[in-house]
């Protein structure tokens, strides 16, 4: 009985050590959201505060990580801490 308990504890310790020591093969970064001053659209001279969100997609190849980028205009208060560039 005592021997089985010791073997179970050692096995559990080995499993925990392996789980903590090995990094996941396909770790995904969390979604990234950035606020910046951008032109409203191509050819425009009006600056607006834009939210740019980057969402990772499932990898097609090992050395490439495709992403989905979404950009939308938001209220100027989101970019209040960022210096607005001169036009």
Folded structure, characterized:
The protein has 87 residues and is α+β, with helices and mostly antiparallel strands. It has one domain. 23% of the residues lie in helices and 29% in strands. The protein has 1 helix and 3 strands; from the N terminus they run αβββ. It has one helix at residues 2-21, and strands at 32-39, 47-56, 67-73. The chain has a 3-stranded antiparallel β-sheet with strand order 1-2-3, with no helix packed on it. The longest helix is centred in the N-terminal third of the chain and has 20 residues, at 2-21.
Read across the widest sheet, the strand sequence of neighbours is 1-2-3
Q: Topology as H/E string?
A: HEEE
Largest sheet geometry = 3 strands, antiparallel
Taking the alpha carbons of the first and last residues, their distance comes to 79 Å
- Count the helices. How many? 1
Helix percent band? 10-25%
Radius of gyration: 24 Å
Catalogue the unreliable spans: none
